[in-house]
Amino acid sequence: MISSDFVNTYQYDFAVIGGGIVGLSTAMALGHRNPDARILVIEKEPSWAAHQTGNNSGVIHSGIYYKPGSLKAKLCQEGNHLLIEFCQKHGIDYEICGKVIVATNSEELPLLENLYERGLANGLNIQKLTAEEVKEIEPHVSCLAGIRVASTGIVNYRQVSQKYAELVASRGGELRLSTKVMAIVPTSQGYVLETSKGSFSAKFIVNCAGLQSDRVAQLGQVDPQVKIIPFRGEYYELKPEKGYLVKNLIYPVPNPNFPFLGVHFTRMIDGSIHAGPNAVLSLKREGYRKTDIDLRDLVEVLTYPGFWTLASKYADVGLGEMIRSLSKTAFVRSLQKLIPDVQADDLVPSAAGVRAQALTRDGGLVDDFLLVRGLNAIHVCNAPSPAATASLAIGKLIVAHILEAVN
Hints:
Number of helices: 11
Shape: globular
Number of strands: 22
């Protein structure tokens, strides 16, 4: 129901739902392309970048993993360059430190070669490394061979998002925190958003709600044809006195059939070294602790046919992830494949993150960015890694879709 204080004139031209890095970059791009537009950004949390953006590894990705020609590959490479320019312009700390991807057994060598060829196809500056050459870069790594990816970097995405928000506000956009969308009511001229802080009207809405994006799409009377399945990524952190074991970023060769990269070592922009993540089903969409459970979220997952198809397909991999979640010893064994010197006593638990993975009813993992159009609306229903790296490029793409829809 539309609240009584609604006035039948549109307060905003565009309303962006979700104050993560994609929502804020979209609002910023909208303001750039439409300087006179009235823009609103609504975020249900009391701060920006509270979920996926603010709880990721802080890596500026290169695009090596992504299928050549895919949106991921194109947007990651463009976004990498745009993000670096943005950080330089606005004085945000970042570092292009590069990373190594290593094969630790003979079965991984052909996968490493395939990854190298994919990197070349994506136009990246990469080089093959012998085990000895890897040790020159990362002295404590044990491997058979590796790849060095020069364009990978690190940054604090909360700081980046905060600057996006400041720029949106400086150009006349309105930012509202602690404002949860409860209903989306279509009208002849657009939509009314019923929220926890009153009603807002807009001619066009952009759903960038991340972990809640499928639900927001349904509020807007759009079936996204996918369900968001939350996966929690759990991390450990190396004790400061053991930081010498890792210089920059060290990754394993990923399983080509699984959408996660495997446990790895990441130097953060503050100098700390994080190890992980594993990937386990979260029992709550915004559940960062093992004990976090939401019955609605859990029932939705367990009654979704696609989840059981996915679970059966990746039963062995999933079991390994769960074992690592429950056993520090198992987690450490995975890390020791990369750095044998790492011991359990060297690691302390660190903050977890939750990834929103879009899944089809037949169990298909949506591997690329997914934009779903509605009437006077665009719903971003899958924006996995490298969304933070690619945020400026994604914002430009979304705005191009919006202008196409309204013209």
